[in-house]
Specification:
The chain is an alpha+beta fold. It has 4 helices and 4 strands.
Length: 136
């Protein structure tokens, strides 16, 4: 899996991810294993052929594959780039060809900073003159 990151703004990354045919084929196999248990009209339960399942559930299989690959790209980006996200990613592109998958998303990250000593500061309390009449 090839991942390209570009910092758009501070704490905002644009990520483009490309996956290879092998990764796509393994995910496709996982998705098809899930759809094997789905009911197909005209067939007994769990007895439909793989070609029939692919034909009947083509759009659902493609959408599930896109979502699974996008999730895989997201988690791989977090692992490889050591990024700590603040919110969910915003996907701009999910493109599935026969042998390739490409996705692009925006990721908001936590800011990186060093915290200096803060326990030794004294915060002065303001002096307030309050009379008993002002309290009620």
């Amino acid at each position: 899996m090839e991942i390209q990151t570009n910092e758009l703004e501070y704490c905002k990354l644009n990520v483009v991810c490309f996956s290879s045919k092998e990764e796509l084929d393994s995910k496709r196999t996982e998705i098809l294993d899930i759809f094997k248990r789905a009911p197909v009209p005209g067939h007994r339960k769990n007895k439909a052929t793989l070609e029939t399942i692919k034909y009947f559930y083509k759009t659902q299989i493609d959408e599930s594959l896109k979502r699974a690959m996008a999730e895989s790209c997201y988690h791989e980006t977090l692992f490889q780039r050591n990024v700590k996200p603040v919110a969910n990613p915003v996907f701009k592109l999910l493109e599935l060809n026969k042998d390739n998958f490409k996705c692009e998303f925006v990721l908001y990250t936590q800011p990186q900073f060093n915290l200096n000593k803060y326990k030794e500061f004294e915060v002065p309390k303001p002096h307030m003159d309050i009379s008993p009449e002002d309290m009620y």
